[in-house]
Design brief:
single chain, four-stranded mixed β-sheet
């Protein structure tokens, strides 16, 4: 029996209302000017959730926009996948709550995946796999993260980078004669780097006791406890520059394509410094590597769909656009996909 191909049918995004500007950060970190932050990161401002607002709230809002646009009939959704590292509860899965809040049929399958920067591509592979197996025809993939809840406000090393946001993506079955395709995929994991991007305390391995949560100052003047987000920027950069070009080449080999065949190479939107370095290592013109982080920051699992939605809104995508997607980061984890819209 032939497997059923899938396509990215529609995307909607959502940002929280609160804006954190570089000028506000400059006021807190003397010597770290707004212009310096912009020059280094490419980020002018980022969005952060309000007190009591969660990643699930953002994901529901993004999905409601998708449904409200008419692109997604909730009655036709067979499966919902919620990708986040900031779930509302230890249990149940946030996807189960998402099913109820969106009014999806009780026949809808639902599961959570705990992945960060590679999460959208992993979610895309799970969705297309469900469709290929005949287990679903329409899968709703919701990515949402609120790293601001993990960041110590006195830690400028990460506070300047990350923003909160969500995206809802509809993945649907298409006919064999359709040019639209998702895949092939490339995956990778190097758990040796788990501590290079981590919130160490708060789980069962290291409960967030008062002693564990005591703040300490590093040699750069950043303050954090072990319950806060920590990133070893040098190690993450080295891993990225090693694995992303390798993933790029592997995708070309698996798909039988060349760099010239792609309209865009959409990378995880880490920051300007990271993307500048990657652009020098990939054999494609800079204009084929779109960027969208200046006004929203690094939204973790949602950066790639934010870029895709932006390209769509600007009319830069056609029905046959070929795009390579590569996500990379916390885990250490990475994933790539070749997609024809």
């Amino acid at each position: 029996m032939k497997s059923t191909p899938a396509c990215i049918a529609a995307i909607a995004t959502h940002l929280p209302e609160t804006v954190l500007t570089n000028e506000e950060l400059e006021a807190q970190f003397p010597g770290w000017t707004a212009d310096k932050i912009l020059e280094k990161t490419g980020i002018r401002e980022r969005r952060v959730v309000a007190e009591g607002e969660t990643a699930l709230d953002l994901g529901i809002a993004a999905a409601q926009k998708l449904i409200g646009s008419g692109a997604c009939d909730p009655r036709s959704v067979d499966f919902v996948i919620f990708c986040s590292q900031a779930g509302d509860y230890i249990l149940p899965a946030s996807a189960c709550i998402l099913q109820d809040r969106l009014g999806l049929p009780i026949s809808t399958g639902a599961l959570d995946i705990n992945l960060g920067c590679s999460g959208f591509v992993y979610g895309l592979s799970l969705a297309s796999g469900l469709i290929a197996a005949g287990s679903a025809r329409n899968v709703l993939l919701v990515t949402a993260d609120t790293y601001s809840k993990y960041i110590n406000k006195a830690d400028r090393s990460v506070r300047t980078l990350f923003g909160d946001g969500a995206a809802a993506t509809l993945i649907s079955a298409v006919g064999e004669d359709s040019p639209s395709r998702i895949g092939p995929f490339v995956f990778g994991t190097d758990g040796r780097g788990a501590k290079d991007l981590i919130v160490e305390a708060g789980g069962f391995r290291l409960p967030a006791t008062p002693d564990v949560c005591l703040e300490e100052e590093d040699r750069h003047g950043n303050r954090r406890g072990r319950h806060n987000l920590y990133m070893n920027g040098g190690n993450v950069m080295a891993f990225t520059l090693r694995e992303v070009p390798r993933t790029f080449r592997q995708l070309l080999d698996r798909s039988g394509t060349s760099p010239e065949d792609y309209d865009y190479i959409v990378l995880h939107q880490a920051n300007k410094f990271m993307l500048d370095a990657l652009a020098k290592k990939l054999p494609v013109p800079a204009e084929k590597i779109p960027r969208l982080y200046e006004d929203i920051g690094n939204t973790v699992s949602s950066t790639i769909p934010f870029v895709l939605a932006g390209l769509q809104d600007e009319g830069r995508l056609t029905a046959r656009s070929r795009i390579m997607l590569i996500g990379f980061g916390v885990g250490l984890s990475w994933a790539g996909a070749s997609v024809v819209l």
